[in-house]
Each structure stands twice: as C-alpha cells, then as structure tokens.
Amino acid sequence: MKIVMAVIKPFKLEEVREALTSIGVQGLTVTEVKGYGRQKGHTEIYRGAEYAVTLLPKLKIEVVVPTEAVDKTVEAIVGAAKTGQIGDGKVFVFSVDQAVRIRTGETDVDAL
User: Fold this and answer.
1) Helix, coil or strand: residue 42
2) Terminal CA-to-CA distance of the chain, rounded, Å?
3) CA-CA distance, 67 to 27, in Å (whole number)?
4) Domain 2-111: top CATH class
5) What InterPro entries does the annotation carry (predicted)?
6) Distance between CA atoms of 43 and 99, rounded to whole angstroms?
7) Which residue pairs from 78-86 have beta carbons closer than 8 angstroms and sit at least 24 positions apart in sequence?
C-alpha cells in the first residue's frame, strides 16, 4: 500500500476529487495548508497599502491506495490539478506499513 499526497491549488479540489472517484479511489483526506515553492508568494494591495503574501493557501490531499494503483492515481491527480502555471503543486508517494479500519477491524488493503 502507498499513500499519495498532493499539494494543489484550492480551486482545483473538485476536479481532482472527480478524477480520483472516476478511477475508483473511495476516500480522501483534505487539509488546508499554506506554503510556497518557486512562486515565492506575491504582493497585494489592502486599503491602499501594499503588502507581501509569502505563504499562499494550498490544499493537501492524501489518499491510500494499493501499490498497483499508484501510477493511475498520480496520473489522475496531475491531469486534474494541472493549469500550466507556476504553483500547480506537487505529488509525493510514501509506503504504508499497515492500515486498520476501526469499525470492522479489517486490515491492510481490505481496510481501504
């Protein structure tokens, strides 16, 4: 099993969710986060004063999938989240040693 973690632009959430649902991913976790990469933030004007926004709002999506579904999952996220602009985000893949469904006690792939 692997956990696929993606950091994306907030307005792309619904497209990514639909793409994951279409390939059979049954659940996901979404967390509101802030950060920056190559964008380095931007400047905004509020009440006539200019100020720098160094940490931009992003969403972190996490899904756990069987190892054989990782490539398809990553392709779905990248395809749905891509705008072609700087700041589209990144996808990371980690190993998962164990999973347990609390309600039923099912383990590993059965718990997904």
Assistant:
1) strand
2) 9
3) 16
4) alpha beta
5) N-reg_PII, N-reg_PII-like_a/b, N-reg_PII/ATP_PRibTrfase_C, N-reg_PII_CS, N-reg_PII_urydylation_site
6) 43
7) 79/19, 80/12, 80/15, 80/16, 80/18, 80/19, 80/20, 81/6, 81/8, 81/9, 81/12, 81/15, 81/16, 83/9, 83/12, 86/38, 86/39
Model confidence at 82, pLDDT cuts 50, 70, 90, reads very high
Q: What does each C-alpha distance from 11 to 1, 79, 110 come to in angstroms? A: 28, 14, 32
Considering only residues 112 and 2, tell me which one the structure prediction assigns the higher pLDDT.
2
The conformation of residue 108, written as its DSSP 8-state character, comes to G
pLDDT digit string, tens, across residues 21-78: 999 998 999 999 998 887 666 666 777 777 677 788 999 999 999 999 999 999 999 9
Task: Give the residue among 39, 72, 74, 76 at the shortest CA–CA distance from 58.
Answer: 39
Please tell me the predicted confidence (pLDDT) of residue 41.
64
CA gap 61, 21 in Å, rounded: 13
* Mean pLDDT across 93-109: 94
